[in-house]
Amino acid sequence: MLDDTFRPxxxxxxxxxxxxxxxxxxxxxWVNPKPADRYDLVVVGAGTAGLVVAAGAAGLGLGLRVAxxxxxxxxxxxxxxxxxxxxxxxxxSRVAAEMRDAARFGLHAPETIAVDFAAVxxxxxxxxxxxxxxxxxxxxxxxxxDVFLGxxxxxxxxxxxxxxxxxxxxxxxxxxxxxxxxxRATRPTIxxxxxxGYLTNETVFALTDRPARLLVIGxxxxxxELAQAFQRLGSQVTLIHRGQHLLDREDPDxxxxxxxxxxxxxxxxxxxxxxxxxxxxxxGKVVYFDRDGVEEGITVDAILIGVGRTPNTExxxxxxxxxxxxxxxxxxxxxxxxxxxxxxxxxxxxxxWKFTHAADAAARIVIQNTLFAPFGQFRTKISRLTMPWxxxxxxxxxxxxxxxxxxxxxxIAYETIVVPFDRxxxxxxxxxxxxxxxxxxxxxxxxxxxxxxxxxxxxxxxGELTSAxxxxxxxxxxxxxxxxxxxxxxxxKKAADAYxxxxxxxxxxxxxxxxxxxx
Length: 519
Prior knowledge:
Blueprint: H1 16-25, E1 39-44, H2 48-58, E2 66-70, H3 76-80, H4 83-100, H5 117-131, H6 137-142, E3 145-149, E4 151-155, E5 159-163, E6 169-179, E7 183-185, H7 193-196, E8 213-217, H8 221-232, E9 236-240, H9 252-264, E10 268-270, E11 275-281, E12 284-291, E13 294-300, E14 302-305, E15 309-311, E16 325-326, E17 329-330, E18 343-345, H10 356-371, E19 389-391, E20 396-401, H11 404-409, E21 414-420, H12 425-430, E22 436-442, E23 448-455, H13 458-470, H14 475-478, H15 490-502, H16 506-517
Parallel strand pairs: 1-2, 1-6, 2-3, 6-18, 8-9, 8-14, 9-10
Antiparallel strand pairs: 4-5, 5-6, 7-15, 11-12, 12-13, 16-17, 19-20, 20-23, 21-22, 22-23
Helix pairs in contact: 1-5, 2-10, 4-5, 4-8
């Protein structure tokens, strides 16, 4: 359970970059403003969802009074312990991997790749600090938002109280409120794990020394991204995952490509495996697991947990205001309204999509539904969103729309087009043929139901397919779109052309011959 005691925020290591970050996202001398008599909107939580709601509402120029409450640091996970720091590590690790692979491109690779892990981590901290002004207390104050740092707690009627690290309390009255407190890394209950100690995405970026032997528990996006990054940066990584393949939500063919890449890079994969206990020994942390009924163990220097997210509902006193919640988070309807009509939620606290861009999209819905939907008119629904996502491994795995199992479970008749990347000229020249595009479309029609991309640039390419689904652009129309050559995005053109060829029936060919005869 999350410790409900409020404490000043600290970051390790205590260097100039982290001090610069804290100056932006949690200034040591910050004094909460005097509350307004009543706020149009009080937002609890200053991660992506909360920031977008607050900035969007205050930035309309309508004179709306908006308060933003944050107990830890502005910017939430994305800036501080998520998207930004992880992508910094991934970028450094990609350089190391390309250096090792240089001979394949006719270059002389050095015998040893000397990874300066401390410098890699310092680069990450510097970039994080450079980006932080965008999410800072100063920026949001300039936007007209009243920023309150401290523990927010809902009280009866229409009030949120905020207790800062000095013990001073502010009472914020609201017309509408938004819960955007996000989620944290799930702590599994494995005997001996707490005593042995472990890392999560919330602590791993504080490292300055590289663990020689790293065990990653969990083969979801966080586990896969960090496992590959540390392997490339010089750790010997073992990844344990309870599922039959990595990335349970992804197409098995896509997961197979990633698994093969991990193994080529020297990572040890243990699928359909769960740890049973942990012991601390002079040789290191020994993690035990069952394999075919026999207990085995592996000795490592550090354990990284990546087994999911737990919503931050503790300490909010939601019962007092009639907001229902469970272990999955706050309960919302299709309009992101909680069981209290005056209180909405957005982001990881209520969505199955635990992505920054999902939180951003949900926040925009909340702005519309809280402020500009009188008498329930003009409201928008979360179910109308078409949500792409990307796992930023190398190659990346991107997805949008329905998967084949989802289409089958809904009783939708579909067909599948697969374009392997060894048929994409640019992928061949780049030496990146371990990839694919899989498009699912309605049987006999060109309507795109979903797509999966595995490619170094999958995250950059999935937007075209997302736009096609959102705007009801079928494969037939995509076939008429000119794609620059040679690009890896040409795979989309190839998939569209493959659909067009299915229209060349015997009757169609006879008609074409007839037309040709008169031409």
